[in-house]
Every structure is written in structure tokens, then in C-alpha cells.
């Protein structure tokens, strides 16, 4: 594609089509993964809940040793 913005639209199809959804416990059947998948995210704001669910879904979630402050609290003020 050219480096000029807005001058060209993509006319060819996507090369690799996703045939299967990602499964975060397909190869990792550990106890920690089972705990993370079973965990419910209650008591947090909607934005933080969506972030946590995305992280769990794509195996990016790491349990924290102490709770983290919500970023949205500072944006509201």
C-alpha cells in the first residue's frame, strides 16, 4: 500500500482467515488457569470488568498480590 493516507482502499481479501476461536485452556491445563477461568469479577466498575474479562479470555491475566486502583476514578474528577 502507498504511504499516502486515504488515497487507496484495500481491494484484496484477508490472507489468513480465523477458523477457530482462541481457547485459553487448550494447552495449559494447570490448576492456576482453572482458578483464573472460574474467578468472578464483582465489585469493580464496568470498564475494569471488561478489561479483566478480556485478559482472562486471551491468557493475559496475572493475579495481583494487592489490589490496583481504578484509572477511571482519576478521570472523573
Give a nutshell description of this structure:
Pfam families: DUF2039. The chain has three helices and no strands.
Low-pLDDT runs of 5+ residues are none
Can you give the mean pLDDT?
A: 82
How many DSSP helices? 3
| Total beta strand runs | 0
Shape type: flat
Largest sheet: none
How far apart are the termini? 43 Å
In angstroms, what is the radius of gyration?
Answer: 19 Å
What is the structural class? mainly alpha
The level of helicity is 25-40%
Task: Give an overview of the whole structure.
By secondary structure, this protein is an all-alpha fold. It has a domain at 29-62. The protein has three helices and no strands. It has helices at 31-38, 46-57, 72-76. The N and C termini lie far apart (43 Å). Pfam families: DUF2039. InterPro entries: DUF2039.
Write out key terms for the chains shown:
mainly alpha; 77 residues; single chain; DUF2039
Q: What is the topological layout?
A:
Elements: H1 31-38, H2 46-57, H3 72-76
Amino acid at each position: 500500500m502507498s504511504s499516502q493516507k486515504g488515497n487507496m482502499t484495500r481491494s484484496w481479501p484477508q490472507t489468513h482467515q480465523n477458523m477457530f476461536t482462541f481457547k485459553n485452556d487448550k494447552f495449559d491445563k494447570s490448576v492456576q488457569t482453572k482458578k483464573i477461568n472460574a474467578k468472578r469479577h464483582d465489585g469493580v466498575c464496568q470498564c475494569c470488568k471488561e478489561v479483566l474479562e478480556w485478559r482472562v479470555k486471551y491468557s493475559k491475566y496475572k493475579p495481583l498480590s494487592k489490589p490496583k486502583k481504578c484509572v477511571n476514578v482519576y478521570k472523573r474528577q
